[in-house]
């Protein structure tokens, strides 16, 4: 007869709640990619709008997409949407002002 | 008057002569259009340098068409009405009319024509690309949009793959976890501590699971750190530098669950990196990572330990068996009672406190497949989770002997002393500023006191206190001098 030596290790009385790790004390844990990409996207879309550079506007669209893909679930969707809308508007404005197609740099 | 009458036709004849010569030549040609005759007639007036260019070509045909039709009509009239003898004159007349009609501007009102340039060089204007009405000129834009679509497709596919992997992991480990922990799955937001029974998604590639309610430990946080399959840039960079999915397990212990020691085992690269990065490993395990072949584990794994006794205690037969069979999946295993995370970069002028430590067990496992994981691979991680549970139970029982304990205590005291020494200057500065603040506050209080008597009394009291302090200091200095002597 096998004796079950393993008593139930569960202790419902010893439950501790989950505390999300404090990222202020440990900034290395955070991935900075979405924040950088967001900032880059805004800069490029501003450049594209002000300087009327089509390629800037396109890069801004890409940056906002990358930022969205890397973002955390807890992050504000409004921020993402605003940067996305800004980059799309940069592209649209560049083409309205100058409907010529983009010329490659080579 | 009569002279004029004869002079006029003569002049006209002279002018028309070159034309008539051409005409006679043309009469002998068969089957030629009258329009062609016109072209040849006018050819002499047209400039030789006129080349059939793109733009210019487009212009002459429409221009030539209107003049040719009225000219034709005139000629028809001319040929029908005139007799042979008067043909020349009539023809000349007709041709003169033709000539003039060609340059009659009223016929071409509203019609812009560019005169054939009499210069040698013509400037050819390129038709702007967006007026060309062809999609081919927008190829860069089409490329960009295709790239965006590819990114979106990759996002959806990557997200789904990560989600499936996470679910597969959870399904295979659920039974083990539920039999060991009272609380499986908690996101910390609900009021009551009930098991959610599912993973907590932090990102598209990071999933958390908190388990609690067990003997020998406070709680266990499992992090499934998958590759960023949802980001196309990451996918492309991984083609250059392969990486693998990781499962990180962090077990936090109560004070009584573990004795005081620091120990780590894992791949050589990981050990070298952790020794540089982590606060406790760099302070307590100063020696370079040692090979573990002495204990029977493969050479690919290295050991960092505070003292030999700890290694002997941890490396029992079962642990060795685990390490040997799953050496390829183990990135690092770290047991520490002084765990405080990676080394924090201290800024200048900030008063330091010893970082808070917690008794922790950390496990990092590599998922097999090197990126090309399938949900089935998650089952192979189950024995590793068994090892985690086994370690928790084992460390509860592992106790250092008296010598080991003394050594451990000495080590900790040494580290603390070093820390205090390094921060001495900063702490002094902090104390100084605090003292100055106190003085300033007191002075303000005295100044604000309205009653002059009380003011005087407070001032005297402050002065007396300062005198006492000075005297004390002088006494101390004297004592030190006496002792030195």
Automatic annotation (TrEMBL), chain A:
GO aspect biological process, one term: protein insertion into ER membrane
InterPro entries: ASTER
Membrane-spanning segments: 39-68
Residue ranges of the region described as Disordered: 1-30
Gene Ontology MF terms: protein folding chaperone
Short name of any one Pfam family annotated for the protein: ASTER
Keywords, comma-separated and alphabetical: Membrane, Transmembrane, Transmembrane helix
Entry annotated with the keyword Membrane: yes
Main subcellular localisation: membrane
GO cellular component, one term: endoplasmic reticulum membrane
Annotated compartments: Membrane
UniProt family annotation: Belongs to the Asterix family.
Protein name as catalogued: PAT complex subunit Asterix
Species for this entry: Carassius auratus
From TrEMBL, chain B:
Sequence ranges of Basic and acidic residues compositional bias: 402-420, 432-474
Cellular-component GO terms for this entry: rough endoplasmic reticulum membrane
Compositional bias (Basic residues): 475-485
Source taxon at top rank: Eukaryota
Topology with respect to the bilayer: Single-pass type I membrane protein
Keywords in alphabetical order: Membrane, Signal, Transmembrane, Transmembrane helix
Compositional bias of kind Acidic residues: 71-94
Example GO BP: endoplasmic reticulum calcium ion homeostasis
Entry annotated with the keyword Phosphoprotein: no
Signal peptide: 1-22
Region (Disordered): 46-94, 402-485
Entry's Gene Ontology molecular function annotations: calcium ion binding
Subcellular location: Rough endoplasmic reticulum membrane
InterPro entries hit by this protein: CCDC47 (IPR012879)
Pfam family, one: CCDC47
Family note: Belongs to the CCDC47 family.
Annotated PANTHER family: ADIPOCYTE-SPECIFIC PROTEIN 4-RELATED, PAT COMPLEX SUBUNIT CCDC47
Protein name from the UniProt record: PAT complex subunit CCDC47
Organism: Carassius auratus (Goldfish)
């Amino acid at each position: 007869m096998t004796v079950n030596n393993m008593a139930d290790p569960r202790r419902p009385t010893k439950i501790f709640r989950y505390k999300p790790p404090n990222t202020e004390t440990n900034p290395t844990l955070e991935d900075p990619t979405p924040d950088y990409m967001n900032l880059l996207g805004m800069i490029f879309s501003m450049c594209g709008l002000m300087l009327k550079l089509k390629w800037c506007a396109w890069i801004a669209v890409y940056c906002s997409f990358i930022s969205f893909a890397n973002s955390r679930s807890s992050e504000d969707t409004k921020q993402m949407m605003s940067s996305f809308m800004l980059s799309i508007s940069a592209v649209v404005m560049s083409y309205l002002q100058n409907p010529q197609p983009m010329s490659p740099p080579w | 008057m009569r002279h004029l009458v004869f002079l006029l036709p003569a002049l006209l004849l002279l002018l028309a002569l070159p034309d008539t010569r051409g005409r006679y030549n043309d009469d002998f040609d068969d089957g030629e259009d009258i329009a062609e005759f016109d072209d040849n007639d006018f050819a002499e007036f047209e400039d030789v340098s006129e080349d059939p260019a793109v733009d210019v070509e487009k212009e002459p045909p429409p221009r030539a068409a209107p003049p040719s039709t009225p000219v034709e009509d005139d000629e028809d009239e001319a040929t029908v009405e005139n007799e042979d003898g008067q043909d020349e004159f009539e023809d000349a007349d007709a041709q003169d009319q033709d000539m003039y009609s060609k340059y009659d501007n009223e016929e071409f009102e509203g019609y812009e024509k560019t005169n054939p340039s009499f210069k040698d060089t013509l400037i050819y204007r390129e038709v702007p690309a967006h007026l060309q009405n062809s999609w081919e000129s927008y190829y860069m834009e089409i490329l960009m949009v295709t790239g965006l679509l590819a990114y979106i497709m990759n996002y959806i596919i990557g997200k789904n793959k990560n989600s499936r992997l996470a679910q597969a992991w959870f399904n295979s480990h659920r039974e083990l976890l539920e039999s060991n922990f009272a609380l499986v799955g908690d996101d910390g937001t609900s009021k009551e501590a009930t098991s959610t029974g599912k993973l907590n998604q932090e990102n598209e590639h990071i999933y958390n699971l908190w388990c609690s309610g067990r003997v020998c430990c406070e709680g266990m946080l499992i992090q499934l750190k998958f590759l960023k399959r949802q980001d196309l840039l990451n996918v492309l960079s991984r083609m250059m530098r392969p990486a693998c999915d990781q499962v990180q397990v962090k077990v936090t212990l109560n004070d009584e669950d573990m004795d005081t020691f620091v120990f780590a085992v894992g791949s050589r690269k990981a050990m070298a990196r952790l020794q540089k990065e982590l606060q406790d490993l760099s302070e307590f395990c100063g020696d370079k990572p040692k090979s573990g072949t002495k204990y029977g584990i493969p050479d690919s794994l290295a050991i960092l330990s505070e003292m030999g006794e700890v290694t002997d205690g941890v490396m029992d037969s079962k642990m060795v068996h685990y390490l040997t069979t799953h050496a390829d999946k183990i990135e690092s295993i770290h047991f520490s009672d002084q765990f405080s995370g990676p080394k924090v970069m201290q800024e200048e002028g900030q008063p330091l406190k010893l970082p808070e430590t917690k008794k922790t067990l950390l496990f990092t496992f590599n998922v097999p497949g090197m990126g090309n994981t399938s949900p089935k691979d998650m089952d192979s991680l189950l024995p590793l989770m068994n090892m985690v549970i086994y370690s928790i139970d084992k460390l509860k029982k592992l106790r250092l002997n008296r010598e080991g304990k003394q050594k451990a205590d000495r080590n900790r005291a040494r580290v603390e002393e070093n820390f205090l020494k390094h921060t001495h200057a900063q702490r002094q500065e902090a104390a100084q500023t605090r003292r100055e603040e106190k003085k300033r506050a007191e002075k303000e209080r005295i100044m604000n006191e309205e009653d002059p008597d009380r003011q005087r009394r407070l001032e005297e009291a402050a002065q007396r206190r300062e005198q006492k302090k000075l005297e004390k200091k002088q006494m101390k200095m004297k004592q030190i001098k006496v002792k030195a002597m």
